[in-house]
Amino acid sequence: MPTDSVGRFLAALAPERREAVGAKPHQEQERLAAAWEQELEGDDELDTLDELSPPAAEAEAARRVLDRGIDQQPGAR
Predict the structure, then answer these.
(1) CA angle in degrees (0–180, nearest 5) for 59-57-42
(2) pLDDT confidence of residue 13
C-alpha cells in the first residue's frame, strides 16, 4: 500500500481515472493529491464514512475532486 499522498490518491481512484491521472505530470498529480487530502480533512460526511470504511471514504473524496473539475488546468473549462 502506497504511503505517499500521490500514491494513496492514485490508489483511491477508479481504474479508468487512475490511468488518466497517472499520465499527468507529477506536479499536477501532487496538486490533485493535495486537493484530495483537503477534501478528506474538510468534510464531516467523509469522517463518518471513514469510520465505517476508510477505502470508501478515500474513493469518494477522489471522485469528488475529479468531478469538481479540479483535474482541469485553469482555462480548460
Answers:
(1) 110
(2) 95
